[in-house]
Write a structure and sequence with these properties.
By secondary structure, the chain is of the alpha/beta class. It is about 25% helix and about 20% strand. Helix 4 links the parallel strand 7 and strand 8.
């Protein structure tokens, strides 16, 4: 397997395949950050209101695949940021844990009679990031979302949050890898913030969504007229 690296002319590369195989095939070129949302190992069977019937996430029966990928990235000295379940955080030596507060419009699952809404997620930040850029912000990240976010993927991430994380942990022109790309929000955020990205996605239907969203986002940036005309790229920005 040959993995194409992103360029200025083609800043985001979408690779369809098993992430462990793809990572092993990657050259030893510069990788500035791994920003990803591995399967949490919670056997998610449905999420949000935009999916009809039962929706599952490949590999979500355990944390094994996510931990293997994180360990491999750490072994290659790549800085890692990984979303995680508060009940099953990733093993390893992490610098910090952040909290993403998603707001009260989501988190309605679980036992309504005995449990609070699970309206937040954990974000683990590795020690290899050289710097956190910009102001010293609070570790609770307030990015409210609506159930419509899951129209692309049952565990889609907020584009505003992903753009924020990209800005805080990388510099313009840096290369980001997302081994569990899902619907490609990391790639859309990378394009909007002037970064490059390699998106790896095993499931063909989501890889196709990645390619479509990346194609739509090419050339879009902060304040772009085209960005204003393409609300489908950022459906969760109005929760």
């Amino acid at each position: 397997m040959t993995v194409e690296m992103p360029t200025d002319e083609n800043p985001v590369v979408v690779v369809e395949g098993d992430c462990l195989d793809v990572l092993r095939a990657m050259p030893d070129g510069r990788v500035d950050a791994v920003v990803t949302d591995p399967p949490y190992g919670i056997a998610l069977s449905s999420h949000g209101t935009w999916f009809r019937g039962m929706t599952t996430i490949a590999g979500d029966e355990s944390t094994a695949i996510g931990q293997k990928v994180i360990d491999q990235c750490h072994s290659r000295q790549w800085p890692v940021l990984a979303f995680a379940s508060p009940l099953k955080p990733w093993r390893g030596d992490w610098r910090q844990a952040l909290v993403w507060n998603k707001g009260g419009a989501v988190g309605i699952g679980g036992d309504r009679a005995t449990c609070w809404k699970q309206s937040w997620e954990l974000i683990q930040v590795g020690r290899l990031f050289p710097e956190v850029y910009g102001d010293r912000d609070e570790a609770v990240l307030e990015f409210p979302i609506s159930p419509s976010l899951s129209r692309h993927h049952p565990a889609a991430k907020c584009s505003r949050l992903m753009r924020y994380l990209v800005r805080k942990l990388t510099r313009p022109g840096d290369t980001i890898i997302d081994p569990f790309a899902g619907s490609g929000t990391t790639g859309v955020a990378a394009i909007a913030e002037g970064r490059k990205a390699i998106l790896i996605e095993k499931e063909p239907k989501y890889a196709a969504i990645c390619r479509r969203r990346v194609a739509e986002a090419m050339g879009l940036g902060e304040g772009s007229l085209l960005a204003a005309l393409q609300p489908s790229l950022f459906p969760e920005d109005s929760p």
